[in-house]
Amino acid sequence: MWFVFADDSEEKHPRRLGLGHLVGVGAVLFPEGSLIAYTEGIRQLRNELGVPPGVELKWSPPHGSWLKSAEGNAIRTPLRKRMLMLAKDLDARSLTVVWDRGQVEWAVPDTRREVLKYLYDKVSLCLTTLEAHGVVIADEPGGGSAEQRAWLAETLPLTDEGTYYTKPERILLPITTAPSNHIPHLQLADLIAGATTAAIAGNRYALELLPELKALTHRNSHGRIGGAGLTLWPPSLVNLFYWVCGDDCYIRFGTGFPLPEADRLFAESDGLPS
After folding, report:
1. CATH architecture of the domain covering 2-258
2. Helix/strand/coil (H, E, C) string of 77-112?
3. Global pTM?
């Protein structure tokens, strides 16, 4: 049994030229036997780095968080890197979907529903590869109990009916939600969703985490991240798998197409300002 923890993120003003408002959702999959070990590892890490009790380890800490103090800022990047590598050492793996509303300008609520559907597909495919089953726990949506109930109602068709591409066979229960402040695995999902979406956007702090993010990201049978552990929409963004992930080709229907592709965006450069 695998436990899947999910959260969403967005980047409204990407630094990477040519991108619009990005909406992302990410997940980290833990084998059942690693859950306690990750909790204990995070407890030891917090003690070692002097993180006060009760501080939530979020990608974008709220105003007033200790992580935004001088002491917190000094250990923030090492903390994040070690969170990711702890999960990697416990055989966890991540999946992220990022949608560029600058090119496919759906309303934000519609976009979030669609990327969740894409993530459901990718989690199901990953579990199929692992010959395993799983349950999905997502961070509670903001807005109070009414919005949480509405969001859960919207996710029920996924586990009842699946999607166009995926039958509801691998994910055993309806998606449930929980508050992230006391669940370190959900805080890791927040980091993965936030940092991966930010890396696509060109955020320099997220780009510093790329080696650890890539080490944790699920890969296909050809060893590539694109289309497996990271999904970008629309397909015109495929060259970012080359610039961000280091993939030298993109697999479509079992065939590899060399990257970067000349007729796509970012064919000549990564789009980052000099």
Report:
1. 2-Layer Sandwich (3.30)
2. HHHHHHHHHHHHHCCCEEEEEEEECCCCCCCHHHHH
3. 0.94
Give the tens place of pLDDT for each residue, 30-62.
Answer: 999 999 999 999 999 999 999 999 999 999 999
Tally of CB atoms within 10 A around 32: 12
Burial annotation 192-213 (CB, 10 A radius, 16+ → b, else e)? bbbbbbbbbbbbeebbebbebb
Neighbours of 176 (CB within 10 A): 12
pLDDT averaged over the chain? Answer: 92
Helices and strands, number each (H, E), in the chain:
8, 8
Domain boundaries, the chain: 2-258
Task: Kindly give the parts of the chain with pLDDT less than 70.
Answer: 142-153, 156
Tell me the percentage of the chain whose pLDDT exceeds 70: 95
Residue 165 parent element (H or E): none
